[in-house]
Design brief:
alpha+beta; six-stranded mixed sheet; six-stranded antiparallel beta barrel
Amino acid sequence: MATVQSLSTALKKTSDEVIEILVNAGIEGKTANSEISGDERKILMAGLSKRGSAKSSISVSRKPSTKSSDGTGGVKIQVKKKRPIQAPITPVQDDAAVLKAKEALEAGRKADEKLLAQDAKRQEMTRLQKEEAEGLKKQQEQAKQQTEKAKKTDDADSDDKSKKPKRLRNTSGADGRKQLHVAKKNPSRKLKKKDRTRLSQKIQEEQAQHGFQKPIEKVVREVSIPDNIKVSDLAQKMATKAGEVLKVLMGMGVMVTLNDVIDQDTALLVVEEMGHTGVVSKKETIEDKLIEKSKASGDESTRPPVVTIMGHVDHGKTSLLDYIRKAKVADGEAGGITQHIGAYQVHAKDGKITFVDTPGHAAFSKMRSRGASTTDIVILVVAADDGVMPQTIESIKHAKSAKAPIIVAINKIDKEGVNLDKVKQELSVHDVISEEWGGDVMMIGVSAHTGEGIDALLDAITLTAEILEFSAVTQGPAQGTVLEARLEKGRGKVTTILVQSGTLKKGDIMIAGLEYGKVKQIVDDQGNILKEATPSTPVEVLGLSGVPDSGDEVLVVESERKAREVADFRKARDREAELQKQQASKMDNFLQKMEEGDISTVNVLLKSDVRGSAQALVEALEELSTDEVRVKVVSSGVGGINNTDINLAATSDALVLGFNVRADAMARKTADKEGVRIEYYSIIYNLIDDVKAIMSGLLSPELSENIIGIANVKEVFKSQKLGDIAGCMVEEGVVRKDSPIRVLRDSVVVFEGELESLRRFKDNVKEVKSGTECGIGVAGYDVEAGDQIEVFERVESARTL
């Protein structure tokens, strides 16, 4: 602990001076060897601060000066500062305790000085504010007194005196000397520039000290995220720099700019990564309002069940439906394969049943998924001779995702040697268990050729429908789903829809996806023109502005203006999503090219007879893309190939594929002129195989190496003309001149190069066969006796997908 003596040495003062300061502060009884506590040291520092602040004083003196124009003498105020009295410097003792006390005292002194400075600033601010208030109050009282005095006396002198400003009035004291009156702070008086600056600086310092405190904890914000959002808007919502958001996105592998749009899922990940809480925006759009307003309401009534027939290709789905409908639909399909979604309504003995036939080929996976999403019951057709196949498994997945009950129809039981138990065993592996085996799935053997088991299948459908009690609202505006859409010559845009609720009437304003229009005609599956269509009825509708996509929702609205607004809203939303997709694709392609080099591309322009086939073909072609060759569908559409399609194909160097459509005369002429290749197809297998062949032609050839000969080095001869020549014995195969070779030493490759010369005795030869001696010249390497020379050839072979 520090003593009075050590503190006086550190402060460069005498012990008496330190004791005097302590006495003035109320601490008595201290001697030079007395110890000083922490509290006493603080009192000592406060006393030193007060003593230091009292070292300056103000003295007022009157000095002769020139008189002013009004006859008054000038008065000057001088501020004199006394020089600090320096205490005699005593040598500092090399005592560890003294040094430690000195350091502690210095640290305490600095802390005390900082606190005192802050207190002084606050006191100065309070004093200025108090002086302003007192000066204003005093000025008001003096003005009141002067007004009363002016009323009581008519003396001109006293009247003049009362009118003079206070700062010009001087009074005489008893000794005849004039006294100086210094006015208080007057807020109404305009301050000089330097005074305003000094005051504003004090206020700023005070506000800087006490007006703001840096937040200790990070602010966690709740950020509302819509379906799509710009990067800059996302940064603004989080109150952070856009550069920080870009860094997070780059760390996630998303290369975007400030004005690019990202999807909702990506934005939620960014918000979570930056420590905030992301909330999915529930903003109601014009589309949501219209859908809510157009929903049919009222009492529900029983409706026919919608049954979807699914299964593997060529397992007899359409043939089974043909027998039920007593028609030959399969004969009309190319190759006997269903390539469109067909919907039909049949009359069973217990009521109507609506059937939806879906394609079985792998390319139509999305079409089967759309069929399953609109169905009540799934009929899974499995051929008794083939059993469970890939599309059978896929159909089971679609049915389970749609949560629709499954009825298995085991077809082709009329063939010899079929085993139904084997089919049931294969189905049980995929969690489709027969009722006979303790499951909940009805399995019925049928024959689409003889009609055996068809009645039992219809009874099973009717029984399932009665148990599940399918119902819908029949009154009000209609709602449904687009099953198929196409362009038909003489009729225009034809859309096949399935009405799911409400009643569709002729003249209704209908919106389907991005298209809208007035219903001009309603036709059923038999070709009959209807005035209205009730729930579970498949119909063809004419009157839409374009060809919608399969799976689009159908909605009847009150006016064409509302339908146009929703269609425009959906187009803008899809355009923004497409722009986002293109932006991401450009960046991905750029990065991919940087990593792997240029990628070969097959550009394709696709035209189809119906929208569903076009969608399925686009998905199938894009799935063919590999790391080296990819398929890019430049454009896809419905209808014949026209001149505009050919011009687009010529510009983008694309191959034109027509699926069940043809090019008109003008298009064919332009194609010949521009050199555009047009290919027509009616079966999907052939189209996909041809595109695969084109892609295979763009693949780089595969290089392989074949070892054609091995020679052992017996001795090395040195020649001035030819250099080192290895005398060899050909052990295997053939050694050919100008072939690539490898030199092996102890079965390890030590050199790879070219065979420079090949001699048999003194003659140059082109090849030497096994069991023959020869001389071999190796360029760029010193061969030793005992080495092996391996001769090989490189072979290029075409690759296929």
